[in-house]
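Recap from last week: sequence in, structure out.
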Amino acid sequence: MRIDERGITLHQSKRCGKCDEEHPLDRFHKFARSKDGLSGWCKPCANAYHREYQIGKGDGKQALYTRANRYQLTEEKLVTLLEGGCFICGKVDKKMHIDHDHACCAGHRSCGKCVRGALCVRCNIGLGIFGDSLEGLSKAVTYLEGGYIEN
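Predicted structure tokens:
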């Protein structure tokens, strides 16, 4: 056993919080916010989790659970929203976004009551550019319907 300059005992191995196996310290990612400076999961477990989460933002079971939990939806409701396509243009895309009212819940999480539907990337960005403003969108529609300048 080693002891660091602060008098804390340094262990040569650590137990993974996911697989519950003992691993050498070099099998853990660095994580500055933890007491020992290492992740709570071993590299193979952490990598497997992140790989599954990144698969198409919804194809992996863990990813589906994580997204449903973020918006306080059941997994079934989330799948229904995603498979229904974009609420605005109808496009079905692998990277659909769940849209919610940011006036109710700011950020990337939702209470579930303010979820409006699923949007494709383009439509979600479009709403974001207009700041979810009905007035701004209404002016844009008016402009598109006849906003030509006279030559």
